[in-house]
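no rush on this but wanted to send it before i forget. theres a chain ive been looking at and ive put its sequence and its fold in token form underneath. please have a look and point out which stretches look like helix strand or loop to you. thanks a lot i owe you, the record is right below:
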Amino acid sequence: MRRISIRRGLLAGAALGVGILLAACSGGTGGNAGTVSGGKYTGPAVTISFWNGWTGGAAPVLVPKLIAQFNKEHKNIVVKDVPIEWGNIAAKMPLAIKAGKGPDVAVLHGDDIATYAAQGLLLKSDAIVKSLGYADADFPTGLLKAGNYQGSQYAIPWSVTPLGLYINKDVLKKAGLDENAVPTDQASYVKALDALKAKGVQGEWVDGFVFTGTFEFESLVWQFGGQLYNSDVSKATFNSDAGVKALTWMSDLVKKGYSPAKVAQDGNINALIGGKTAFNWNGVWQTTNDAFSKVSWTAAPVPQIGTQKAVWSSSTHWVFPANKGQDPNKTKASATFVQWMNDHSLDWASTGELPAQNSVRNDASLLTKYPNLKTFLGELDYAHYETVSPGIANANATITTAVNEAVLGKKSPKQALDDAVAQANQLLDQNKAQYGG
């Protein structure tokens, strides 16, 4: 599901702060003390292990290539790439960290960070962030803070993956519509759906799965001015008026014949590629879908159905595991690796993910090489990222249940959301008891 150098003015003593922090957080001994300032590690030669879930698509080609380049440029650091399926990382990494056998650096999705932090599995990285010169303004709005838990920083952004509106231009053309007239709001979107329906085309196929029905619903909740949870994530709020409006919009697409019922997983993107539908809300990752090579298509921002612009986006982040006996020098070397990777992440766009670092995304060569990303870059000004709270995945699953029940007509949108919120609140209480906070 996932950067060129920035001129940074570093505060005096930042590197010393990193050394103090890492020595306090690990119990390890690293031989001669090294430092890291501005991304440069000075210390004894170390080999660091890097765990990541990139085992498919373009990433398995790009990651080793970048690591090989990094290793060539850094005589005192060797990075060992350890690709593991994302699901297996979740199963293996916590136990490995506790045993002192976890990675020195890893990548997690945004909604995993707080869970790991609450269990003491990650090193606090405030001093690392400071020493590397990172600030909020180096990333999309709110993204650096997504790695913050209970007032401490635990992560550094790597990538983002917002939704967009994929459009089959041939389907629009066959229905007598201007293939270049992209709907931007509720009125123009409904007008296009009506025109398509009149020609026997169901314009948007709505599904009840995480990919991508849940992401569409969450985008709509924010567009109607709602939130998924309250400010401290102690209560679910996605059954608000905004939530009901969002889910009613989606279920009405089925009721009004704009979408078929019971759309299978990935049935909507397959229908778009197959010329059976015109629109699909899907992630930036689809820009790398080889099947699009035979389709006349474009991507646009998701239409503003509600009262404000908003779109769902996931994110991935660098983290520094708190292995039992962690060598501080390895963590410092990992910080150097992280900044180097961010600075050299322009071609990460080839994997269907957007580099998180603003300077890289603002480089003109990005769109020269990857012109299909222009739409998604513009959406980051109003993107919403994962909820930060320990154990949040179990509560999030109830959102998908509600979307599925409403889209399939098993329950009204309000009833589905009310039932899901009741279950989510129980899970949030359990999370608080388990993780504290």
Notes: The first strand starts at residue 35 and ends at 37.
